[in-house]
């Protein structure tokens, strides 16, 4: 049984499939403990156009973590529609 050495993809390439990633500004819907979901807009990310793998810089990750740890009020609040598949049977 031979062991293959792991070769990291070149900088800016997807860790999953090796294709070049695109820099985008995306929105995230993340669980927030007692308040349900929180939507974060304009998050800088590298996104693979082939497999959809998404990654964030250390700076962006730190900003996201600080946002959830802090008590800063949201910039906007939205009402979200909820659908129940059991009701439509």
Euclidean distance between termini CA atoms: 53 Å
Secondary-structure element order, as H and E? EEEH
What does the overall shape look like?
extended
Helix count equals 1
Unreliable stretches (pLDDT < 50, length at least 5) are none
**CA-based gyration radius:** 18 Å
Biggest sheet, in brief?
Answer: 3 strands, antiparallel
Major beta sheet, strand line-up: 1-2-3
Q: Fraction of residues in helices?
A: 10-25%
Proportion of beta-strand residues: 25-35%
Mean pLDDT metric: 85
Structural class: alpha+beta
Strand segment count: 3
Quick rundown:
This protein is an alpha+beta fold. Helices cover 13% and strands 28% of the residues. The chain starts with 21 loop residues before the first strand and ends in a 20-residue tail after the last helix.
What does this entry look like structurally?
By secondary structure, the protein is α+β, with helices and mostly antiparallel strands. It has a domain at 22-69. The protein is built from one helix and three strands. It has one helix spanning 58-69; strands at 22-32, 36-47, 54-55. It has a three-stranded antiparallel sheet with strand order 1-2-3, with no helix packed on it. The longest helix has 12 residues, at 58-69. The radius of gyration is 18 Å and the shape is extended. The protein starts with 21 loop residues before the first strand and ends in a 20-residue tail after the last helix.
């Amino acid at each position: 049984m031979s062991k293959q050495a792991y070769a990291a993809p070149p900088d800016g390439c997807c860790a999953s499939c090796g294709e070049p990633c695109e820099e985008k500004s995306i929105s995230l819907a993340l669980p927030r403990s007692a308040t349900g979901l929180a939507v974060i807009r304009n998050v800088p990310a590298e996104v693979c156009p082939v497999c959809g793998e998404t990654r964030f810089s250390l700076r962006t990750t730190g900003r996201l973590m600080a946002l959830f740890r802090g008590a800063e009020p949201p910039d906007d609040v939205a009402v979200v529609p909820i659908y129940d598949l059991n009701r439509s049977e």
